[in-house]
Amino acid sequence: MTIMLKNPYAQATFLKSAALVSQLPEDTGFEVAFAGRSNAGKSSALNCLTNIRQLAKTSRTPGRTQLINVFSLADETKRLIDLPGYGYAKVPFQVKRDWQKNLAHYLDVRQSLRGLILLMDSRHPLKELDQSMIEWGLSRQLPIHILLTKADKLSRLQARNAQLLVEKHYELMADLLSVQLFSSLKKQGVEELIKTLNQWMGFGEELTGGDNDGGER
Ligand code: GDP
């Protein structure tokens, strides 16, 4: 049975792009960041969640725009943060290095950051940079929710195995890390993602359906 949750992210609006952490909005309230390799499906997932088409544009020039995109919810104390995709081979070394520093700085200092949504192609999960990113987040006690994207490209069994593989890899960190399958194409997993976001964003029961939240897969 599918239970429709209210989606407070459908009203997200683009606030700004920042090249540096110092250009981000004031560090108060609640923030959830989305990260992943270039081409992991991050723009598609954010589109799927927020209906903001403009996001798709950012991925057409992978590596050239190393900007942090900030989206604000109707409740302006809450923001979604779209971090630049990593791992794109053609990014000049210096841009990569600068961005790594910037990212490390963001993860280190940002008090309003409540969790990280980490996207990996379900066909090729846990690449080296993904693992570094996850370990980085975990080392500072940041909750991480993994989306195994493009799940529509796998059979049910393959998808299940991909999820088990990642869960097993981080089984000792299960209190900080969760994993789900996701497909922007089929709109699979959107509700599960919304539930996690709602928890981290500090939304109350009114958004999570209160006593009838049995729709989780
Ligand atoms: P980004 O670089 O992480 O922002 O990735 P994009 O969202 O731009 O997606 C990269 C490519 O994967 C594009 O060609 C998308 O059409 C494709 N893609 C993204 N999500 C899905 C999905 O759920 N299913 C399938 N089959 N393809 C997807």
Would you mind describing this structure in some detail?
Helices cover 33% and strands 20% of the residues. 35% of the residues are buried. With 217 residues, it is α/β, with parallel strands linked by helices. It has a single domain (3-201), classed as P-loop containing nucleotide triphosphate hydrolases (Rossmann fold, 3-Layer(aba) Sandwich), CATH 3.40.50.300. Strands 1-3-4-2-5-6-7 form a seven-stranded mixed beta sheet, sandwiched between helices. It starts with 12 loop residues before the first strand and ends in a 9-residue tail after the last helix. Guanosine-5'-diphosphate (GDP) binds at residues 36, 38-44, 59, 62, 85, 149-150, 152-153, 183-185.
Search tags:
alpha/beta, 217 residues, disordered C terminus, Rossmann fold, binds guanosine-5'-diphosphate, 7-stranded mixed sheet
Distance N to C terminus = 9 Å
Assigned CATH superfamily: P-loop containing nucleotide triphosphate hydrolases
Structural class of the helices, strands and pairings? alpha/beta
How many domain regions?
1
Top-tier CATH class: Alpha Beta
Strand content: 15-25%
Along the chain, the helix and strand elements come as: EEHHEEHEHEHEHH
Average pLDDT number: 87
Tally of alpha and pi helices:
7
Largest sheet: 7 strands, mixed
CATH architecture tag: 3-Layer(aba) Sandwich
Outline type: globular
Radius of gyration: 16 Å
What name does CATH use for the topology? Answer: Rossmann fold
- Sequence of strands across the biggest β-sheet: 1-3-4-2-5-6-7
